[in-house]
Specification:
This protein has 22 helices and two strands. With about 525 residues, the protein is mainly α. β1 and β2 form a beta hairpin. α1 runs antiparallel to α2 and α7 packs antiparallel against α8. The radius of gyration is 24 Å and the shape is globular.
């Protein structure tokens, strides 16, 4: 038996450390709390930063303990574009902080939901480090899915007035309706579920043994119940992205596609049952307008019937026939998005007098739209418009909106520290260059996720989770409860596994071309 080299020992150590780190952040971070909701943000920030820095330190220590073997050429470190873009985002935040003049907010971002320079550098460092690892995506999505079970179970209990851990004991009465589970604010809870739902669906799709199928079905029911009590309409945006995008990666796998239709049917059935239970059980937390509408008998019943009908119609469909539907589905999806955008523009311009009834609160933009998000966005746009040319490029640093609001209050009873739109917030904090860097990061991660899906079908669940997070971020806030999970998904999708898939495809194409020439 040949002796194990230092490099092999290091690779084993790095795999073990990466596995422990992914489980800690994906499964434990959502559950961490200290003084209930009263320091939930700081607690989760400390856990994420502490765990991440410990992971990076132990990796470095492992490299020192197991140096490269004598005579072995060191492997070239490849800077993934996603990591470079994140370092650029942090650099823009640094420059913006200097330009904005509020350096007290720069490092930690106390008035930017703790998304300061240090946090951005940790995000970039983690993505850079994970990009060097060979990661099986089944590990993080399973950790994310199983970690969601206690979160959603507690959220459901909280909604029905059951508080086993005492979270609501000392919470102000006005806050009790919009806080639940171990996440806190309903919007942050909904943001978390936009990533947990695709991971849970992927567990359901990949379950093969009867016991695993039964457990994955139970897992889905718990997560779906937790989703229905989210109390945030932003969750609906993420769920729509999940429902529409997941099938794209399933047309080549008839069994998985049919199981996905069963998952949709299960969600509709869970909503139907929830709607009936809600008529008799008390509600202690808010329910979103989407959940109320979808849980009604006509809507959930129709969705259940449609999902089961599609499941029945695809029972004899061949994979080749389903693959032919992928391109038309893409075209229909893009057409739907385009038509929806045109409709929104027309309803707010030429057709602004057309009565919409209750739908006007969603389709008509005004200062009160989205719980006063319209007013916040208009104020944020005015703040950005008053920037200097350099600030347009690099932003004004963390706390830019908070200090602008201190001069001219948007709300008399509360300070404004976020634009309630992650992209608008990045624009204010890091400028146009920083926003472009962030969007570049998402783009490269999704591109790598598509490549990885060829070898690891589990990567499609993580890719959809990242898209769902990006969609709900249009009306939500970057914060320590769930944003670290999004960047962790970015790191997994751009890991060495994705590059190996791409290289393997290229090599396979070369072989095919050589065979044709022969």
């Amino acid at each position: 038996m040949e002796p194990i080299t230092f490099q092999e020992k290091y690779l084993r150590a790095s795999r073990a450390l990466t596995t422990a780190y992914l489980i800690a952040v994906c499964a434990v971070l959502p559950l961490v709390f200290w003084r209930m909701y009263f320091d939930i943000t700081e607690t989760k920030l400390a856990f994420f930063l502490g765990t991440s820095l410990l992971y990076l330190f132990l990796l470095l220590l492992a490299r020192l303990i197991f140096p490269l073997d004598y005579g072995v050429k060191p492997e070239r470190i490849r800077l993934h574009p996603a990591a470079i873009a994140l370092f650029l985002l942090a650099l823009c935040c640094c420059v913006g902080s200097a330009l904005g003049g509020h350096l007290e907010d720069a490092v930690w971002g106390e008035n930017n939901r703790y998304q300061g320079i240090f946090t951005l550098l940790v995000y970039a460092g983690i993505v850079f480090t994970l990009a060097q690892q060979s990661i099986d995506p089944r590990l993080p999505f399973r950790a994310l899915a199983f970690g969601a079970v206690p979160v959603c179970l507690l959220g459901t209990l909280n909604h029905f007035g059951v508080d086993p851990l005492g979270f609501f004991r000392d919470l102000a009465e006005r806050d009790q309706g919009r806080f639940l589970s171990t996440i806190g604010n309903a919007n942050f809870y909904g943001s978390y579920l936009c990533m947990a739902v695709p991971a849970s669906i992927e567990v359901f799709l990949e379950a093969k043994r009867p016991l695993n199928r039964m457990l994955s079905t139970l897992l889905l029911v718990v997560v779906f119940l937790g989703t229905l009590v989210a109390g945030s309409d932003s969750t609906a945006l993420g769920l729509a992205a999940i429902a529409l995008l997941f099938p794209i990666g399933l047309f080549s796998d008839r069994t998985a596609l049919r199981r996905y239709l069963l998952a949709l049917a299960l969600f509709a059935f869970t909503a139907l049952a929830f709607g009936q239970l809600a008529r008799f059980l008390p509600s202690a937390t808010f329910v979103s307008g989407f959940a109320l509408k979808f849980a009604s008998l006509p809507v959930s019943g129709s969705a259940l019937a449609a999902a089961l009908m599609l499941w029945f119609l695809t029972r004899k469909s061949s994979t080749e026939r389903l693959l032919r539907l992928r391109k038309p589905y893409w075209i229909a999806l893009l057409a739907l998005v385009l038509l929806a955008a045109i409709a929104l523009v027309l309803l707010n311009t030429a057709l602004s007098n057309v009565p919409l009834g209750g739908a006007a609160r969603y389709l008509r933009f005004s200062p009160s739209w989205g719980t006063d998000r319209g007013k916040i966005w208009m104020f944020a746009a005015r703040v950005y418009g008053q920037y200097t040319p350099l600030q347009h490029i690099f932003g004004a640093g963390p706390g830019a909106l908070f200090h602008a609001d201190a001069v001219q209050r948007v709300f008399a009873d509360a300070a404004l520290d976020s634009a309630h739109n992650e992209y608008l917030q990045y624009l204010l904090v890091s400028g146009a260059l920083g926003l472009a860097a962030y969007l570049t990061t998402l783009g490269f991660a999704l591109r790598s996720g598509m490549k990885m899906s060829a070898l690891f079908p589990a990567a499609r669940g993580l890719s959809v989770a990242l898209v769902a997070y990006a969609v709900q971020a249009v009306v939500n806030i970057a914060q320590p409860m769930t944003t670290p999970l999004a960047f962790l998904i970015v790191g997994v999708l751009v890991s060495r596994g994705a590059r190996e898939v791409g290289d393997g495809k290229a090599a396979l194409n070369e072989v095919d071309e050589g065979s044709k020439e022969t």
